[in-house]
Design brief:
By secondary structure, this protein is an alpha/beta fold. The chain is built from nine helices and 16 strands. The strands form four sheets. Strands 1-2-4-3-5-16-6-15 form an eight-stranded mixed sheet.
């Protein structure tokens, strides 16, 4: 009995030590945010901490970001955990003692928490590799906020033999440590469009001498909303937003062109195809009706994120076994380039409560540091528990 109590005391001391280190690392990452493809100091700090714990870092030639590996001593599958590392161009408005030191930059999406929980998970897996089935690669990925950072990782061969991938995100709609999970689609496909209406410029007093692209643009903007209301199944979540309109340079000149830009968000693959087709038809035909022309550029982003039902079930069961609060993950028309990995293999993307507060991308967004270690332990449990289940089934 005495030996058991001693072991428990040592484990508790180790846990407190790790918790303290994770909080210190989290504060550092929050104080030093870096934008997409600029995460050099962030990458160096991650490398420094992992190296101190003798965690292997794979020699991929990434400009920013890195991939760590924990090789289990038991036979099993190869899995991956994605942790994104970039910040946003937002001026922080929190009153945290460790607020951003970089003007106009902030970890307003919780990626500082993602980095720290990923590091904690790596440490815990390294310490328990004698019981780990298979191999875990932890991907500290750059540039998620561009929606294309995952493609930098996929340019390497890091995913070639990976069988399952896990992702997670800070969730300010749930209390700290809550695990929100569901099967099926959880984030949307993200596409961007640019429509240029080409008319004929002329004097503002003589519109009959030209073709005014401004009323054409207005008509196109109104007509595009009929795709949502009249072409797409009413039970399929989707949206189309025109977010930027630009035309002209002065008050008494009718411009030669007007440009509008926006985004389309869809869950269903067929809806994504439909939106692109109808958007092009409406823009071109509406412009033609006014005697103008329309050029349409469709810029595809990541597809919708889909939670594999088997992985989602296992995740929910593990959370309950750990005594964590669980919730149903809300579907969102926000996107995540995690979905690019899922084009190759099954994945599961969960939300981890960071304390109810300002939404992500808000200058007042903040994470409760108390949830860092529980998040790391949960992620480690998912990777270890699922690997064991896969191996033994």
């Amino acid at each position: 009995m005495g030996h058991n109590r001693a072991d428990e005391k040592r484990i508790e001391m180790d846990r407190k030590g790790l918790e303290k280190e994770l909080k210190e690392a989290f504060c550092w990452f929050h104080e030093h945010p870096e934008l997409a493809y600029e995460e050099t100091r962030t990458t160096a700090k991650i490398r420094e901490i992992l190296t101190r714990y003798e965690i292997e870092i794979l020699p991929y030639a990434l400009e920013t970001g890195l991939v760590a590996v924990i090789r289990g001593e038991q036979a099993g599958p190869v899995q991956a955990l994605r942790c994104d590392i970039d910040a946003l161009p937002i001026e922080e408005e929190t009153e945290l003692s460790y607020c951003s030191r970089e003007p106009g930059k902030m970890h307003a999406c919780g990626h500082d928490m993602h980095i720290t929980a990923g590091i904690g998970c790596a440490v815990l897996l390294q310490e328990n590799r004698s019981r780990l089935h298979g191999t875990v690669r932890i991907i500290f990925q750059p540039a998620e906020e561009t929606s294309l950072g995952a493609l930098k990782i996929l340019e390497t061969n890091v995913m070639d033999d990976v069988e399952r991938i896990w992702g997670f995100h800070a969730d300010p709609t749930n209390p700290a440590g809550t695990i929100a999970i569901r099967e099926g689609y959880v984030t949307a496909a993200v596409d961007r469009f640019v429509i240029t209406i080409k008319g004929i410029g002329c004097h503002g007093a003589h519109p009959d001498d030209g073709i005014d692209p401004v009323p054409v643009a207005a008509a196109v903007i109104q007509a595009l909303q009929t795709i949502v209301g009249r072409n797409v199944n009413a039970f399929h979540p989707s949206l189309l937003s025109v977010t930027r309109v630009s035309a002209g340079t002065t008050w008494n000149v009718i411009p030669a062109e007007a440009v509008m830009e926006g985004t389309v968000r869809t869950m269903e693959r067929e809806d994504r195809t439909l939106y692109e087709k109808r958007l092009c038809e409406i823009a071109k035909n509406m412009a033609q009706a006014y005697g103008a022309e329309a050029e349409v550029e469709w810029i595809p982003g990541p597809p919708a994120t889909y939670n594999d039902p088997e992985m989602a079930d296992a995740c929910a069961e593990l959370a309950e076994e750990m005594g964590l609060r669980t919730a149903v993950e809300e579907s969102s028309l926000g996107g995540d380039d995690f979905a690019f990995y899922e084009e190759k293999i099954p994945g599961c993307y969960v939300k981890i409560g960071t304390g109810i507060g300002h939404p992500i991308h808000h200058p007042g967004f903040a994470v409760e540091p108390e949830m860092l270690l529980p998040a790391a332990e949960f992620l480690g449990k998912c990777l270890m528990g699922y690997a064991e289940w896969i191996f033994n089934r």
